[in-house]
Amino acid sequence: MQVIGIILILIIIALFVYYFKWSRKEEKAVETEAGQQVTVVVKGAYSPNLIKAKAGKPLTIVFDRQEDSSCSKKVIFKDFDISEELPDFGQKEITVTPKATGEYQFSCEMGMYQGKITAE
Ligand SMILES: [Cu+2]
């Protein structure tokens, strides 16, 4: 019986890890005077990893990197031809303007961290 209990606990832990690390976290960019803004925490993944924004308005993403993993050192927005380094345990603002409606991806250099902007 004890073994079944331990297995159940492990399954619950695995589900929590899955939920917090890999699930889709969606957030809407907040409108500001300068356009729109959203903060993305970089820690094991991008959170949120789905950003809803308005097309035609500058979107400032504040990357809040809470780690120094070499994997997340760079963030790449291939649609905007942007490749920027993020400071260890620091913040960096990157502004892009999604001119048309559609989806715009961003990722770390190796593509292990993935995020997406949906412009409407
Ligand atoms: Cu990476």
Q: Can you give a write-up of this model?
A:
The chain is α/β, with parallel strands linked by helices and 120 residues long. The chain has a single domain (25-119), classed as Immunoglobulin-like. Helix content is 18%, strand content 46%. It has 1 helix and 11 strands. The strands form 2 sheets. A 6-stranded mixed sheet has the order 1-5-11-10-7-8, with no helix packed on it. Strands 2, 3, 4, 6 and 9 form a 5-stranded mixed sheet that branches. The longest helix is centred in the N-terminal third of the chain and has 21 residues, at 2-22. It starts with a helix and ends with a strand. The relative contact order is 0.19.
Give a summary of the structure in a few sentences.
The protein is α/β, with parallel strands linked by helices and 120 residues long. The chain has one helix at residues 2-22; strands spanning 26-28, 30-32, 35-42, 46-47, 50-53, 59-65, 74-77, 82-85, 90-96, 102-108, 114-119.
Calculate Rg over CA atoms: 17 Å
| CATH architect. name | Sandwich
Q: What characterizes the major β-sheet? A: 6 strands, mixed
CATH topology: Immunoglobulin-like
Features:
single chain; Immunoglobulin-like; binds copper (II) ion; elongated; 18% helix; six-stranded mixed sheet; alpha/beta; 46% strand; 120 residues; five-stranded mixed sheet
Question: Which helices and strands, and how do they pair?
Answer:
Blueprint (H helix, E strand, L loop, with lengths): L1 H21 L3 E3 L1 E3 L2 E8 L3 E2 L2 E4 L5 E7 L8 E4 L4 E4 L4 E7 L5 E7 L5 E6 L1
